[in-house]
Amino acid sequence: MKFMKLGSKPDTFQADGKCIRYVISDLATDVTIIIGEVKFHLHKFPLMSKSNRLQKLVLKASEENSDEIDMVDFPGGPKAFEICAKFCYGMTVTLNAYNVVAARCAAEYLEMTEDVDRGNLIFKIEVFINSSILRSWKDSIIVLQTTKSLLPWSENLKIVGRCIDSIASKTSVDPANVTWSYTYNRKLSAPEIIVKGGMKYQEKIESVPKDWWVEDICELEIFLYKRVMTAVKSKGRMDGAIIGEALKTYAVRWLPDSVDALISDVHSWRNKLLVETIVCLLPSDKGVSCSCSFLLKLLKVAILVGVDDSAREDLMNRISLKLDEASVKDLLIPARSPQTTIYDVGMVHSIVNQCMINEKCSQDLDLGKNDVGCTDFVLGHGSLLSVGKVIDGYLEEIARDPNLSLASFIDLARSIPEFARPVHDGLYKAIDMYLKEHLSLTKAERKELCSLMDVKKLTMDASMHAAQNDRLPLRVVVQVLFLEQVRASAGVQSLNNNPRDASRSATNTEEEWEKTAAEDCNSIKKQMNQTKIKEGEFPKNGKFFKKDSRNSKSGMQLLPSRSRRIFDKLWVVGKGHGENKSSETSGSSQSPTSMVPGDTKSAASSAKHRRHSIS
């Protein structure tokens, strides 16, 4: 820390209790200066020789036959006046970063200028500030902190502005030249000499990171911090990522961890101001330089402390630009009254919609520049795939909420375009969870919910799970089973060099799923019989056994026997025996003996089982 000593005479100021100060001298004191609750018993001549204001006040007091001068609202209080008084007496006084602002403001109040005496206190303090304080990183921050209690004097004397400019300028210097950081944890180590073969090979010096200054300014009050960061940004030489890191560090330093502390009456106003200030200081790149996790956490705090709508919308827009980096945990924003759900699904839906708008605008720009199609756009912007994945995970979490309406779930699921969701496993898990937690759904509602899912986009594991899931509508299960049999038969036919049939089996369109139950069953039965002939599989005692399965090249997995019950039932429907039965009924019917030789016992046995979900 820099310091400056003024004067050469010994300090003869004495105290008599807490409220009396006097000078030990052969001459009796002839004036009393009152600063707050403290009385200074001093001599007129040394004070008047340095202070123009005291000259006027002493003259006025003499005309009133009084020896007391009361200075109301003296900047810096008794301590600052004592420094000025000692300077007037020529006594030794030490100025440093902690008292120089108070002394400067007091000297200005007393009008200790060059017009009164050459080399007066104002001149000396200004030399010290400009030559030492403002050249020191540490002292500039300390001095800036002390200016708060001396407003508006420190502002009018431009001490605040000069300190801010000094700090902002130093943040943008080359880190290789930084040696003045005083709070950074990793201190520079001595150069490490690497020796090979007895000769000096190279020097390895630990470098200072570019964000070395971030922690140092975290001790500033929010008003001063805002002005410093504004100055840093205005320089135009600081990377947005570092500014984002600085704001994150400041938020962690000052925002409390607990919700109760955030919304407490004592600190709610300060926390609201803090969040609004941080949002205001975010880089102009709309948050690209800040992590999505930080922005989402800031949004949660903003909602709790009740920031204005503009700040909240700004955060949501920034988050939409980086939604592909979000995690499901970060998106779980607690709902506020009067909402009845656990999480604020509407806000996440708004963010997703804004994200899609941003991507559409980006796509239009790319189309204008490169004249490429939508497929090329998706390949070049894989972020949408990440968005689809994280929203499917989010849907699975919010599906556990019993108060979540079906409309909200469906609207959010449909906000993700088809090309951003090439695999529907995540969506299937979310739908299954919603069905599990909302058992009161009607048949029509279950059908509408499952219409979100395309069974052709399920992986093998998800298909096997869906085939045994009794929560799904029967029609969906039939679609899954039919698709798996078609895929299996296509693989068998390709091994037997029959590309025409394989192509036909692989080109099922959505309209095929709309055929009657009897037609579905006939197709499935035909494919299953064909597969058994190709693979040498034979029914035995109601169960399927694969002949010479060790040498089979098809790799096809047969369906569980309990799922075959579905085909038995649909076979009866196709024959005209089950027209009045609901497709959602979980009961089973025996299939005719003409279905497959030897399957009568199997069908009867399978009727004892129920479809179940593998959790």
UniProtKB/TrEMBL annotation:
Keyword Zinc: no
Segments of this protein annotated with the region Disordered: 494-561, 576-615
Gene3D superfamilies: Potassium Channel Kv1.1, Chain A (3.30.710.10)
Bias (Low complexity): 583-594
Pathway in which the depicted protein is active: Protein modification; protein ubiquitination
Domain (BTB) ranges: 29-97
Domain NPH3: 211-487
Similarity comment: family membership: Belongs to the NPH3 family.
Annotated protein name in UniProt: BTB/POZ domain-containing protein NPY1
Gene designation: LOC107906826
